[in-house]
Please model this.
Amino acid sequence: MKKLLIVGLIFASAQVVAHHATVTNFTQNIITVTGKVEQIRFQNPHSSILMKVADEEGEEKYWLVESDARTTYEKKGWSLDSIRVGSEITVSGREGRRDYTMYLTRAELEDGTVFTSSGTE
Model:
């Protein structure tokens, strides 16, 4: 029974570590898009922004911009009021391996405020 418990804990901890590995979901290629914020989810363990972005032909696509945890951003000066649904923002980040996804490294808000993965510029 004790061996079974130890094996279970090892597998459970491996899954937690694997969950936070961004290398499997995002490349090192940095991309930038500008669009309208449709939804914001500031939560743990990851926050996200859903944006509507027009491509080169003018067709609108939905982008999922994944990012760090809510608590991480709050420590860096972000708050729930920093980004508003309906506002236009420009985001940069690591390109996703899935279409229309990225991992946020920089966001510029309508008022010119810039947030980066290390805090406010």
